[in-house]
Amino acid sequence: MRVYNFSAGPATVPEEVLQIAAAEMIDWHGCGMSVMEMSHRGREFTEIATRAQADLRQLLGISSDFAVLFMQGGAIAQNALVPLNLLGQRKSADYVDTGAWSSRSIKEARRYCEVNIIASGQADHYTRIPRQSEWHPSAAAAYLHICTNETIGGLEYHWTPETRADIPLVADMSSDFMSRPLEMRRYGLIYAGAQKNAGIAGLTIVIVRRDLLGRSHPLCPSAFDYRIVAENESMFNTPPTYSIYLAGLVFQWILRHATPDKNALEAIEARNIEKARRLYAALDASAFYETRVAREDRSRMNVPFFLAEPRLDELFLAEARERGLAQLKGHKSLGGMRASIYNAMPIAGVDALTDYLRDFERRHG
Questions:
Q1: CA pair distance 195, 136, nearest whole angstrom
Q2: Which of 16, 82, 138, 298 makes a 20 to 30 Å CA pair with 130?
Q3: Residue 206: how many CA atoms within 13 Å on its side-chain side?
Q4: Residue 141: which residues within 8 A CB-CB, separation 6 or more?
Q5: Do 179 and 150 touch, CB atoms closer than 8 A?
Q6: What integer pLDDT is reported at residue 1 of this predicted model?
């Protein structure tokens, strides 16, 4: 039976990538070693890391004005490392609160600076992203922080905020990174855990404008100082070598999606739009299922939904597992269901889910 994994992360990896990794597990390109055994400073791994960075730069159009860092600790670590690296002489930073993950970023940043919450969706129970006309930015912030996709609540920015020239835009993109093209020039720093769209757990990707380097707090650990990591090409300490290798395979997989009329990420985005359209259409077609996020802010990556009869939740999940539809239980803080349909989820997986939604309603609605 084919299993479709709707986990929010660690998430499904492209089958083609897994097959390549399996074939190369024992012996990478005839060198007699697994990637897991390689010295991170050896010729073989240097080749892997160099290509991974080059492919990432090609995909996102990252210029030499930006450093690409392969780090560890996930987005949660970056919640602390962003203020430790970017505050410089300033004492405050602006944050937009759109749900669980941006709230967590705010809580951590408060350990290091004054946090100005310049807009919040809390009053609307985090069902919409405040329009920028509703924001109240401060004058002396070191940066402006957003979470572009709330993995738990299922909200996603489908627009890029404008910022003042001296206030760089910082974005936690952990769950929509690599799902669409970006205008890199609009951002000062982007960070993302790899385990959604870019590989497996263990790797955190940081893309930071070079003019923002060198502002770290004196107490920032050397291994987490962006300037030091950049100067050492992410090799100041032993990096997550196998996670970098897998990310590199994923970048190559994405590149293969390019078509004569679309670049790779444009093609990936088009497929993601279609997957989301099919799933939301099935949910919207019935009062048996409920979605609570404003339509214009719905995530293409994470789709939370609720059954009209919560008493049927466990039966819904049990029957889903019998059909090979795995990891559909919603986050414990929200309840209900959640389908994460990242890049690697095929359209066939979404179609299998929508067929099940209609069948379950027919039998239990």
A1: 33
A2: 82
A3: 30
A4: 90, 92, 93, 94, 116, 167
A5: no
A6: 86
Whether residue 240 is preceded by a cis peptide bond, meaning omega within 30 degrees of 0, is no
Contact present, 115 and 92 (Cβ < 8 Å): yes
Tokens read off for 147: 């979470």
Whole-number Å distance between alpha carbons of 101 and 353: 27
- What pLDDT, on the 0 to 100 scale, is given for residue 219? 92
Mean pLDDT, contiguous 10-residue spans, the chain (365 residues):
96 97 96 95 96 98 98 96 97 97 97 97 97 95 98 98 95 97 97 97 98 96 97 96 98 97 97 98 97 98 96 98 98 95 98 98 93
How crowded is residue 171: how many other Cβ atoms within 10 Å of its Cβ?
25
Which residue intervals of the chain bear CATH 3.40.640.10? 15-255
- Could you list the active site residues? 101, 172, 196
Whole-number Cα distances in Å, 185 to 61, 165, 189: 10, 11, 10
Q: Which residue has the tokens 């990538």?
A: 17
Euclidean distance between CA atoms 278 and 183, whole angstroms: 27
CA gap 334, 103 in Å, rounded = 15
| pTM of the predicted protein model | 0.97
Tell me which residue of 327, 310, 324 sits closest to 356, measured CA to CA.
324
CATH architecture of structural domain 259-364? Alpha-Beta Complex (3.90)
CATH 3.90.1150.10 residue ranges of the chain are 259-364
pLDDT for 106: 98
DSSP codes joined into one string, 299-317: -SSEEEEEESSGGGHHHHH
Count of all residues that appear for the chain in the document: 365
Helix (H, G, I), strand (E, B) or coil at 197: coil
Q: How many CB atoms are located within 10 Å of the residue 218 CB?
A: 5
Closest by CA position to 130, among listed 152, 103, 157: 157
**What is 15-255's CATH topology?**
Aspartate Aminotransferase; domain 2 (3.40.640)
